[in-house]
Amino acid sequence: MSMHDEAVQNAAADGIEPARVRQLWHLLEPLHAVLYYAPEVFEEAAALGYGTKERWPAYFPFRAAPLGAVGGERVASAFYSFSPRMVAEHVDSAWRIASPEDVLAARLRGIDRTYRAIFGDRTDSPELAEAAALARRAAESANTAGRPLAAANAELAWPEAPHLQLWHAVTILREHRGDGHLAALLVAGLDPAESLVSFAAIGAASVERFESRGWSKEEWAAAHGRLAARGLVDSDGTATEAGRDLRRTVEEHTDRLAAAPWRALTRQDIDRLTELLGEFWVAALSSGLLPSESTLGIGKV
Fold first, then answer.
1. 8, 34, 148, 265, 291 from 14: Cα distances, Å
2. CA torsion sign, 224 to 230 to 232 to 238?
3. N or C: which end of the chain has fewer CB within 10 A?
4. 300 in any annotated domain
5. C-alpha to C-alpha distances, 111 to 118, 131, 285, nearest whole angstrom
6. 287 by DSSP, 3-state: which?
7. CA 27/CA 170 separation, integer angstroms
8. pTM above the 0.85 mark?
9. How many domains is the chain partitioned into structurally?
10. 301 located within any domain
């Protein structure tokens, strides 16, 4: 049995096909990611004292705040593919500007305002409340052992408003998937820089987009050299067949590791959640807030 067949078989044993797991991620991710691009969130970040000329001064504390007032090394470990220098630049001073508790309160205010701006009257609709309840059921069933970002978010109190519950559930589930993705990268023997070089090599996003993660040209070239020595990329940075197979295996393992929370829902529940999320997914994508190209490779892998 090939690794691909094994991944499909294991995910099917979880009661949900890998393609469905990935589809749910594609639906959920924009609902979380608007946090890092919405002007309402930037206003909340600026009120705390963070710079907003670029998104990174707010991105790092807003995503890392559930971990508490930890230093750059622990955040770099959890975020993985960012250069530790870049993480330290923003995290080591973040908690002198605002406490994690204040950041968490600000990000909820920002998401409240953002969702109301994007969804309008539908923010308080029964359909969104129903979607939130289903997503929450999945999120609350997620096993967070070995998943630091999922665990940190799961430990937070649930907001009262349904639209904020939806965002919180989506955040737990996407960080649960992300933590599993890092495990898949480790098993594949891809270090933080190599994970980006190998992803760019299959066309998941442009090299320029991945450069936003803070690695120097020398570090990128060194990672390319290590991958080339393993026969995973060609001299021009394009993935070899072995490199594509390895990345395919990483994504399949990620899907399998992300499948478990969805066992809390029936297939009918998942169908209903997919139906309910459609209009809100469209609204998030149509808002113009999210970049057309993502380092997550959505739609490319």
1. 10, 30, 22, 11, 33
2. positive
3. N
4. no
5. 10, 17, 15
6. coil
7. 10
8. yes
9. 1
10. no
Q: Give a yes or no: residue 56 inside a domain.
A: yes
What is the domain range of residue 215? 3-286
Judge residue 121's burial from the number of C-beta atoms within 10 Å of its C-beta, 0-12 exposed, 13-18 middle, 19 or more buried. exposed
| Chain CA centroid to CA 200, Å | 17
How distant is the alpha carbon of residue 265 from its chain centre? 21
Is residue 70 in a domain?
yes
Q: Tell me the C-alpha distance between 171 and 43, whole Å.
A: 21
* Number of Cβ within a 10 Å radius of residue 104: 18
Structure tokens at 14: 């979880």
> Who contacts 269 (Cβ-Cβ below 8 Å, separation ≥6)?
134, 137
What is the longest distance spanned by two Cα atoms in the chain? Answer: 56
Per-residue pLDDT of the chain (301 residues; tens, 9 = 90+): 344 444 434 444 347 899 999 999 999 999 999 999 999 999 999 999 999 999 999 999 999 999 999 999 999 999 999 999 999 999 999 999 999 999 999 999 999 999 999 999 999 999 999 999 999 999 999 999 999 999 999 999 999 999 999 999 999 999 999 999 999 999 999 999 999 999 999 987 777 888 889 999 999 999 999 999 999 999 999 999 999 999 999 999 999 999 999 999 999 999 999 999 999 999 999 999 998 756 554 454 5
| Residue reference for tokens 């508490």 | 68
Task: Please state the length of the chain.
Answer: 301
Question: Which residue, 301, 291, 275, 277, is CA-closest to 31?
Answer: 277
